[in-house]
């Protein structure tokens, strides 16, 4: 029985897999498109199809001021003839710096409302409140949670896992897949993919870029529980784990060890990572190899590049 909901086609798939000189493969979801590049578009293909099915007129979502997810949502909504409202966590100085993802979101006409870090703690309540206000104005709002990370959005990276299986059809399947995580949706989707495909001995390793492994383990369980209830499946999270110690001083704060690894990868493979997500996750991967916890000689390792190229430019001085 095919449980997968219908979806839009907004990106360029399959994305290629690059083999690095250190023995690690990188799946370049950074090449899923241009304005909509990165991992979020996989989730948005399902979420925005649902929005269209419900005759929505405006998409509401939330994230940081430099959010990849919010930028991809704003662009995709505009392509579909929908309006968008973004609640962005920001300081006063950040809100005045119209660059990177925030620039793209602004350029495509998204309505942007800045909220404080304290307000961000009740972001779901704020989204619900704004949705109700918009309904009173005659709109049909559709709320997408932070990162597009919910049961429906999980199909995005379940589909990605299917894509990986096809790309490895005549090769040994990866037993380690490493990905950055900020809202757990990408990890959740991969976990769904592992379970539904019946793949054995494939570990999904999430590298938190905020909070910690305990937080993400609980959040993953919640998303998977919702998925099972919605689709009548028996997906479990045994194949996933999270590794702590690679955030640095905080979310989106450049972390020197990661910045060094970003430069090395750029100059050896021509692949550009960002300081917020992929750079920290790649640094974790390199560290785990150095510690002997991962071995490219005996493990088949895949790193998923989740995008973030627009985040590089506002911090360009730190990359050189």
Automatic annotation (TrEMBL):
The active site is at 67 (nucleophile). This is 1-aminocyclopropane-1-carboxylate deaminase-related. It holds the Pfam family PALP. InterPro entries: ACCD_DCysDesulf, TrpB-like_PALP, TrpB-like_PALP_sf. Gene3D superfamilies: 3.40.50.1100. Residues 9-307 form the Tryptophan synthase beta chain-like PALP domain. The modification N6-(pyridoxal phosphate)lysine is found at residue 40. Belongs to the ACC deaminase/D-cysteine desulfhydrase family. Keywords: Pyridoxal phosphate. It comes from the Eukaryota. GO terms for molecular function: D-cysteine desulfhydrase activity. SUPFAM superfamilies: Tryptophan synthase beta subunit-like PLP-dependent enzymes. The keyword Nuclease does not apply. It comes from Anaeramoeba flamelloides. Its cofactor is pyridoxal 5'-phosphate.
